[in-house]
Target: Nicotinamidase
Amino acid sequence: MKALLLIDIQNDFLPGGALAVAEGDQIIPIVNQLHDHLDLVVATQDWHPADHKSFASNHEGKNPFETTELLGLPQVLWPDHCLQGTSGADFSSELESRRIEAIFRKGTNPEIDSYSGFYDNGRLKSTGLADYLRGKGVTQIYLAGLAADYCVYYSAKDALDEGFETFVLEDAVRAISPEGYETARKDILERGGKIIQSSDLFLR
Ligand code: VGL
Ligand code: ZN
Model:
């Protein structure tokens, strides 16, 4: 079984949003065409409380995109984004949502960030996504969404660690930084993941 995993296609990561990813909106028409080519569609949603420690605003004297440590892990400090219950945390209204069977929220623990859809960055807690997918008989995961160098990347690494055959749909992701994406891309390939185009999926 093949699952499409849609990562954080939320207003705050789209142009005009609090942590906008350049061209993030361009993936949406592509993503919307993918649903019928896979057996199962699942989405993740970044979902932070206001006191989340990944927000620069919760660290005195710190600005967005500076770094610090959280629970001993390096942490980029972000602008406030994807606040629980706000329109910035909503999925884009352009996103086809009818086939999304489950939504996994992450980033709810204020003490630690959570890029992957599977675990927080310190692996303190699982979201249950891996067991959910295994329970559905999924063996292959196709990733699309935002941002390619953070949440897509971390989700791809965990998908590989969890033993799924893992494909990143390169034309259906966009990154915060081009250099970050280059590093992520190489690492995913080294770990045995595959980088493909969505058109490759239409031919399968
Ligand atoms: C993300 C930074 C902070 C992402 C989420 O979805 O890639 N990036 N929170
Ligand atoms: Zn976040």
